[in-house]
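re: the backbone from monday

yeah here it is again, tokenized this time
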């Protein structure tokens, strides 16, 4: 039985790392890192026994940390728009991680803007990432 699709996750971080409390150092790095990674996965699929299988990026964001300030920063909107535009021909879907800053793995956030993953913070304030998706809509 052939496979239906390939699913993977990707994040824009290329250097350093933050723990679940935002401790450590990290850089967003290359604004096209996810674009390059998605293209590399697509190339591997094309070279496989299933060259036409769908590619779904089922989790992606500018960072894997739920306490990264980039999630609350204006540049995240541009990063999202750039990434989605450049991956529209290589991935069938790009599922942004995640809709809200409600995230159980890192305890209760200390402030409204604490670097959470979401499009909305806990107080339902729309973050820059939200406006990127609103623009696309």
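seq for it, each position gets an aa:
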């Amino acid at each position: 039985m052939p496979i239906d699709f390939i699913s993977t996750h990707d994040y824009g971080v290329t250097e350093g790392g933050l723990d679940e409390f935002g401790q450590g150092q990290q850089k967003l790095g290359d604004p096209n890192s996810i674009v390059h990674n998605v293209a590399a996965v697509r190339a591997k699929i094309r070279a496989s026994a299933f060259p036409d299988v769908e590619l779904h990026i089922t989790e992606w964001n500018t960072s894997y940390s739920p306490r990264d300030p980039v999630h609350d920063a204006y540049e995240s909107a541009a990063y999202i728009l750039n990434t989605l535009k450049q991956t529209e021909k290589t991935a069938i879907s790009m599922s942004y991680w995640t809709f809200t800053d409600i995230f159980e793995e890192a305890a209760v956030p200390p402030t409204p803007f604490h670097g959470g993953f979401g499009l909305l913070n806990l107080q339902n304030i729309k973050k820059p990432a939200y406006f990127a998706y609103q623009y696309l809509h």
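The chain is about 25% helix and 20% strand. The CA atoms of residues 20 and 106 lie 5 Å apart.
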